[in-house]
Write a structure and sequence with these properties.
about 350 residues; alpha/beta; Aspartate Aminotransferase, domain 1; Aspartate Aminotransferase, domain 2; 2 domains; seven-stranded mixed β-sheet; four-stranded antiparallel β-sheet; about 40% helix; PyrdxlP-dep_Trfase; pyridoxal phosphate; transaminase activity; pyridoxal phosphate binding; Histidinol-phosphate aminotransferase
């Protein structure tokens, strides 16, 4: 009990009983039962973990039918983004990504003194002519986040692979699949297929979303054989805790929790999109654990955010993405979602 209390004190806003956390895309059903009820020998936490993380890499390799020798473990996928960009992006080099992509890529690019450019996105699609124009500037790295955050769009594997086939092999491709487990193509994602076949390619995954392990900070990268030595050399020793690595192994075994999570999120996504559309507001929630909402004006977006804040809801207003008129609302437990639905319905009627 004391251990649980201490963890609670480390979580942003968790001690505030009036706050409802729908701003960080966390798992609405929590972590798997196998983690919560697991008996861990905490006396061994005085020892360093296996620096190779062979057991975790083997478990990931077996689950996704990929070579464990091409897997790099990370302290969340954020660390893997950092490792990748520090390894491959030099001052003056160029990283290109679709407009409104996950902000970590632009932040790290700016810190490294590199150039960041964007590809237009039209109704969730990257048009071949826009990609061709972006590639003509010879980017060193091209990032494709799929499903996208914060827009919530999804590109099917066949279309994604077709897009990537038009990109020259000297450009490094990063396929960020943080939300892959929510998609219908979970067993054969585009990212894994691309790394199977293409040099200079990386697929990023995380345990934070569908597996409910955000607090343990655990991610992994599947890397083409030509890039693996360079990226692995940048990984710090013991960058993943023993507890996190073990939790990851166990989480992969709990297919039932994964299924419940994805079905729950898809269900609430449909309900919320339907609610917003009933009142003439654009919204999307395609294979993610949040809904992206686009209002007609920044003022209306702020009004809805303030109303939800006054009811205790923490939600994300997307000013950092230059989307001041948009909100991103994550999914929480059923009681929270029913309250959210009621509050939103009242506010949208006003």
């Amino acid at each position: 009990m004391m251990f649980s209390k201490k963890i609670r004190e480390c979580v942003e806003g968790a001690n505030n009983n009036t706050s409802i956390r729908l701003h960080a895309n966390e798992n609405p059903l929590g972590s798997p039962d196998i983690i919560q009820t697991g008996q861990y020998d905490l006396s061994l936490l005085s020892l360093y973990p296996d620096p190779t993380y062979n057991a975790l890499r083997a478990a990931i390799g077996e689950r996704w039918n990929i070579n464990p020798e091409q897997i790099i473990t990370g302290n969340g996928s954020d660390e893997l983004i950092d490792i990748t960009l520090r390894s491959l992006l030099k001052p003056g080099a160029r990283l290109t990504a679709p407009r409104h992509s996950f902000m970590m890529y632009k932040k790290r690019t700016d810190i490294l003194g590199a150039l960041y450019s964007e590809i237009p996105v039209n109704s969730g699609r990257i048009l071949p002519e826009d990609l061709k124009e972006a590639v003509s500037h010879k980017p060193d790295i091209l990032v494709l986040v799929n499903p996208s955050n914060p827009l919530g769009h999804y590109i099917a594997p066949s279309e994604m692979i077709s897009l990537v086939e038009t990109i020259p092999p000297e450009t490094t491709i990063i396929i960020d699949e943080a939300y892959a487990e929510f998609t219908p193509d979970i067993e054969n994602t585009a990212g894994i297929q691309i790394v199977h076949k293409r040099v200079n390619s990386i697929c990023l995954r995380t345990f934070s979303k569908a597996y409910g392990l955000a607090g343990l900070r655990l991610g992994w990268a599947y890397v083409s054989a030509d890039l693996y030595p360079q990226l692995e050399a940048r990984r710090a020793p013991y960058n993943v805790s023993a507890l996190s690595a073990l939790a990851g192994e166990h989480a992969l075994q709990d297919r039932e929790h994964l299924f419940k999570t994805t079905e729950y999120c898809l269900s609430w996504g449909r309900k919320l999109v339907g609610l917003f559309e009933d009142y003439g507001v654009k919204a999307s929630a395609q294979y993610v654990n949040f809904v992206f909402v686009e209002f007609d004006s920044e003022e209306r977006s702020r009004e809805i955010q303030n109303s939800l804040n006054s009811e205790g809801f923490l939600i994300a207003r997307l000013t950092d993405y230059s989307l001041d008129h948009c909100l991103r609302i994550s999914f929480g437990p059923r009681e929270q979602m029913e309250k959210l639905f009621s509050v939103l319905e009242k506010e949208l009627k006003a």
